[in-house]
Amino acid sequence: MLAIVKSTALHGLCGCLVQVEVDVTNGLPGFEIVGLPGPACRESRDRVRSALKNSGFEFPARRITVNLAPADLRKEGPLYDLPIAVAILAATGQLDQAAASKFVFLGELSLNGTVRGVAGVLPNVLAAREQGVRDVIVPLENAAEAALVQDMRVYPVERLDRLCAFLRGEEEIRPYRVDLAALMKKEGDGGPDMADVRGQAAARRALEVAAAGGHNILMVGSPGSGKTMLARRLPGILPDLTFEEALEITKIYSLAGLLKPGFPLITERPFRSPHHSASTVGLIGGGRQIRPGEISLAHHGVLFLDELPEFHRDVLEALRQPLEDGVVTISRAGGTITYPASIMLVAAANPCPCGFLGDSTRQCHCTPHQVQRYLGRISGPVLDRIDIHIEVPRVNYEDLAGSLPGEPSAKIKRRVQEVREIQRRRFAKTPTSCNARMTPDQVRRFCVLSKEARALIPSFFRHLNLSARSYERVLKVARTVADLEGSEVIEAAHLAEALQYRSLEGRYWG
Ligand SMILES: Nc1ncnc2c1ncn2[C@@H]1O[C@H](COP(=O)(O)OP(=O)(O)O)[C@@H](O)[C@H]1O
Ligand SMILES: [Mg+2]
Predict the structure, then answer these.
(1) Digit-coded pLDDT (tens) for 428-477
(2) What is the CATH number of domain 180-395?
(3) Atom of ligand 1 nearest to the CA of 230
(4) Number of other CB atoms surrounding residue 185 within 10 Å
């Protein structure tokens, strides 16, 4: 007999319905899965067989063929255990097929018949809703993330036999609900605070400008000067996430299997700091069982690359496209997959191999050639995508001990939020999200210089040895500086500050 049960499959973060067709026929006993199953999916056979037997059902000693349609889409992961088991029960008359027909089923089975949580439930449930399904059966572990999807009835299950009792109408399972407003309000500790950073007025200012306009930033300074400390405090001065943004981030974490129990919705901006030995796949995404990389896990947040010159060159080059587009495209056999990757890049570097060039406390022993080769590992095109370059000098002990705490993150964040609001109005009805992402047209339209500012340009160009391309970057940063002052026109002082954020280029990469 033939039975059909619904499930879903993903392509990137988008998905479609999958028909799990099971045919049980007379013949030599066997169990086969066709329809492009991945390795974890092929192993379903062993789990389903044991789970059915150990849940008190009969496993047919006949020929079982499972087809996962559409057959041209690869089915990854163990989430088809549950729909396959239900379809076998329906095909062997142990369950009424009509009772199962309105649901989408997702879940892994353990050998004793309990239902295990799986990765990617949130994007799968979103896909089900898009296809017009309203009822989903998911593992209890994943019920909260599934319930984030509005207008869905989410039935959590823990055991296969209980699920069947529910489908037969012998037992009740109440749809799982979450309080979205409460989840959004759930305050974390807000992360580390800018108040901990003493002194460093210039670096704090640069970080505020970066946050306000969404600019990438590079910090150069000797070890212990506080680069990591500053970078970790950036998410805390960025605007609060909207629900849509939180959901986008949560989809990626769900897919990567990184949602923590009890925290179905990610409400804080991510901060990711992969080690410099990271591979291209680790950073960009991909692999045999395709996964989002660090750059997607940092979506709407901060990607911190400490010791930037130590990263493999091909890894840095692979960053160029996602930095430009805000999405990352991964090629694989049979097409490409896109993941979101709208990030702020914060990079840190020592000024030289030993780290002490220009340091007041220790002597640097590197030759000029060594220094140049070290920083030269950051290629021009990568450097070009970082709007703000600053030097972070070491704060000496007396200054640290004597100075007052810095301005707290909450106050800086309020200013940043105001400037983001100006940008939201400026770019309304365009895909541009912030000053850093202006198109060349928008730069021409919105970056209007005062007469005094225009007069500055020739001398600066000569002095800093700027390319036309970095000039556009300078204008974007100047736009943000002017926004921070509430000025419509870019004045000389705004332009001068923005130009100053390019001054390292001539010194280190000239
Ligand atoms: N401006 C500062 N105010 C307070 N503490 C600082 C400051 N700069 C450095 N420190 C202290 O020094 C430690 C090392 O800083 P870190 O950010 O790791 O330096 P880097 O990443 O540049 O090597 C910090 O954890 C912090 O305790
Ligand atoms: Mg550090």
Answers:
(1) 999 999 999 999 999 999 999 999 999 988 887 777 777 777 788 999 99
(2) 3.40.50.300
(3) 17
(4) 9
